[in-house]
Amino acid sequence: MSSLDAIAHNWSFAVYIFGIIFVCVFMLAIPVFMGGRSKGRAKEEPFESGIVAVGGARLRLSAKFYLIAMFFVIFDIEALFLYAWSVSVRESGWPGFIEVLIFVLVLLVGLIYIWRLGALDWSSESRRRRIRDEANQRSNLS
């Protein structure tokens, strides 16, 4: 099969590649022609959504923010896997059901574990109360 036959056979792929190259070149070239060329102190200053930045870029975020992000990622991936399983539930049959059941149980055990550790206590008052109660229980056992 010659290269001309291969291109004729796969013409849609060639059009797709040409379209990708055209869109990339267009998106890189259009700002050169339409962008502003003036320079100044105000133009060179970074901004976000039209608001001039104030302060440093190094912000300290609470660990609660990272916990929420991790919970979101974990349960988002769980929803993704459950959706994929629900699409192919007839093909996977009982073995697929058992695998999904094990998957959900492992995530449920993890959720109960982090709940018992107090990772879902968002307010500092409830955390202080929990620590005080644990200390009282330890002193009662002694």
List the helices and strands and how they pair.
Blueprint: H1 3-9, H2 11-34, H3 41-44, E1 47-48, E2 51-52, H4 63-87, H5 89-117, H6 124-141
Antiparallel strand pairs: 1-2
Helix pairs in contact: 4-5
Structural description of this entry:
- It is a single chain.
- The chain is an all-alpha fold and 142 residues long.
- It has 2 domains: 3-52, no CATH class; 63-141, Up-down Bundle (Methane Monooxygenase Hydroxylase, Chain G, domain 1).
- Helix content is 75%, strand content 3%.
- It contains 6 helices and 2 strands.
- The protein has helices at residues 3-9, 11-34, 41-44, 63-87, 89-117, 124-141, and strands spanning 47-48, 51-52.
Please outline what is shown here.
The chain has 142 residues and is an all-alpha fold. Helices cover 75% and strands 3% of the residues.
Calculate Rg over CA atoms: 28 Å
Class from helix and strand fractions: mainly alpha
Strand order of the largest sheet: 1-2
Overall geometry: flat
Share in β-strands: under 5%
CATH topology of the largest domain: Methane Monooxygenase Hydroxylase, Chain G, domain 1
State the low-pLDDT regions, or none.
none
By CATH, the superfamily of the largest domain comes out as: NADH:ubiquinone/plastoquinone oxidoreductase, chain 3
Mean pLDDT: 81
Q: What is the number of E strands?
A: 2
